[in-house]
Amino acid sequence: MAKCTVPAGGSDLLTDPSSSEATVFTGTVLVVDDEKNIRRTLRMVLEGEGATVVEAETGERALALLEGALAADAAEPDSGGPGELPNAVIMDVMLGGISGIEVLEKLSLLGEDGHPPLPVIMISGHASVADAVRATRLGAFDFFEKPLSRDRVIVSVRNALRQSKAERELRDLRQRVHGEIIGTSAPMRELMRMVAKVGRTRARVLITGESGTGKELVARAIHEASDRHDHPFVKVNCAAIPRELIESELFGHEKGAFTGATGQKKGLFEVAHKGTLFLDEIGDMDLDAQAKVLRVLQSGELTRVGGHTPIQVDVRVLAATHRNLQEMAGAGEFREDLFFRLAVVPVRMPPLRERLDDVTLLARHFIDQACEENGLARREIDPEALAALARHDWPGNVRELRNVIERMVVLSDGDLELDDVPPELRADQGPAQTEAAPGTMAVDDDRFAQLLREKSELPLKAFREAVERAFILQRLRDNNWNVSRTAEVLGIERTHLHRKLKILGIQRGGR
Q1: What SS3 class is residue 52?
Q2: Distance CA 215, CA 349 (A)
Q3: Which Pfam family name is an example for this entry (predicted)?
Q4: Do 415 and 381 meet the contact criterion of CB atoms below 8 Å apart?
Q5: Strands 265-266 and 252-253: what pairing?
Q6: Bridge partners of residue 122, in order along the sequence
Q7: CA distance 229 to 461
Q8: All domains in the chain, ordered by first residue
Q9: Across all residues in the chain, what is the average pLDDT?
Q10: Digit-coded pLDDT (tens) for 249-302
């Protein structure tokens, strides 16, 4: 089939005079095209902008490179070795073996939300509208036709590298806070993206949300995402410190400043120097202390109680509250100027009832945690028990769920069953729902009977594989073919699920 080629001696891609914006790329781009001239031209353009270029002449070769790099990246994310995952891909739609669209489809199974694990830019000299639509649905970052415009290539690759960098920072953040912030629901994914984005800045953040939603965990995650993560993270519970001691705790005191001040003491602002100070329940701080906190935020200076010498501090302040500070400011119960200083970036913690999809993951995490803390053997939880937990609205949020799970673990004699769920959670829930709880499969006698009839001639092993295949397919569809989320719901490693998909012959959109 004829293809749109670039002349060996030069091209508009190299000589386009309209590109005047100075651009410096940092990252590796995989160029996949079975025409040597196209690869050579793209290499010259991208390397001229500072990128590192890797080439592949076939879809099979590209897929092997990417799968190997993904495996190495999962095993050693920071290795930076020769098998390092590229930051972006430029790939032709039509290749000699498997097509670029087929490679994109396979990559979409390896990423999250049905998207490839890195930005993929598709190019073609003879693509149809259907090809472009399919590529977009499979998560292509961009799609354009040959002859290639140098400006278009540079802008698209620059944006792809920026997205790749942001996604890697988000993944690194998740690894640093692994085991603390649990959840794959849409509200939690958006929250983690916000954390990664604001963490890179010096902006002050006000975290709001009901009690028990995990505001402190988010504050720690913001600290871990910042360039201050090697310095102290200091928490102050403003509601737990008596009014007469709050200033001493925050700003320190000199010897003899008041009765009982037998020596000099650094305040928590000084302790947090170069790091992050987290003012939890800031809405409970009295107005006098608020005024002094405001002065520190404005000037970066504080004076210890009983002292006269200003002390310079470099502290990023994060604050949290379950109260409505704006309403309190209107009522004169909170300083409006301090509210605006603190709430540069507001972050809302979703209550657990808004992310019930995460109950299964949280429950299993807290089961493992409770077993370890109490010296008990690892325990499983029955699907009916999970379903009962998923139907509760959790007014106490994640904290309430953790306490309930620990109670169930401590009082049970083995694996957790429906009878181990506290009676108050089981009461007035009505009959079991026909829809399964997240991570479980509803018992459907008719469906199972149909499987028995259809597969009655199969030996036990083949029948078990047929049931397993149907179950995994349903979970994949439930999670919009997000392999990572499906693996978490199934309670297995993502690499294990990928092997299962290959063994059982499951492909995206398959039956």
Answers
A1: strand
A2: 7
A3: AAA_lid_14
A4: yes
A5: antiparallel
A6: 91, 143
A7: 51
A8: 12-172 (3.40.50.2300), 186-350 (3.40.50.300), 353-426 (1.10.8.60), 445-504 (1.10.10.60)
A9: 82
A10: 999 988 877 877 788 889 999 999 999 999 999 999 999 999 999 999 999 999
Pick from 255, 276, 274: which is nearest to 265 by CA?
Answer: 255
Amino acid letter for position 400:
E
Q: CB within 8 A of 15, min separation 6: which ones?
A: 150
Model confidence pLDDT, tens digit, residues 153-179 = 999 999 989 888 877 766 666 555 545
- Give the integer Cα–Cα distance in Å for 162 and 164: 5
* DSSP secondary structure of 199-266: HTS---EEEE--TTS-HHHHHHHHHHTSTTTTS-EEEEETTTS-GGGHHHHHHEE-TTSSTT--S-EE
HSE toward the beta carbon, residue 322, CA cutoff 13 A: 13
C-alpha dist (Å) from residue 85 to 70, 73, 483: 6, 7, 19
Place of tokens 């509200």: 187
> Which pair of structure tokens corresponds to residue 65?
């490179």
Residue 279, both tokens: 């003012």
Instruction: Assess contact for 223 and 229: CB atoms under 8 A.
Output: yes
315-338: pLDDT as tens digits:
999 999 999 999 999 999 999 999
Distances (CA, A) of 118 to 110, 112, 418: 10, 10, 42
Structure token pair of residue 362: 């949280």
Q: Locate tokens 């694990």: which residue?
A: 117
Please answer whether residues 27 and 87 qualify as being in contact, where contact means their C-beta atoms are separated by less than 8 angstroms: yes
Spatial contact of 7 and 36, defined as CB atoms under 8 Å apart: no
Cα–Cα distance measured from residue 174 to residue 180, given in angstroms and rounded to the nearest whole number: 9
Place of tokens 């489809």: 105
- Helix residue spans in 343-493 (DSSP H): 359-373, 383-390, 397-411, 423-426, 445-454, 460-478, 483-490
Tell me how far apart the alpha carbons of residues 35 and 13 are, in angstroms, rounded to a whole number.
15
Cβ-in-10-Å burial (0-12, 13-18, 19+) of 434 comes to exposed
Cα dihedral 464, 466, 472, 476 in deg (nearest 10): 180
Type of residue numbered 507: Q
CB 329 within 8 A of CB 336: yes
**Interior angle at CA 163, CA 507 and CA 479, nearest 5:** 35
Could you tell me the two tokens for 425? Answer: 């959670």
Give the list of residues 6+ apart from residue 128 with CB closer than 8 angstroms, or none.
none
- Tokens representing 34 are 């079975």
Q: Quick one: three-class SS letters along 103-146?
A: HHHHHHHHCCCCCCCCCEEEEECCCCHHHHHHHHHCCCCEEEEC
Q: Which residue has the tokens 């379903």?
A: 387
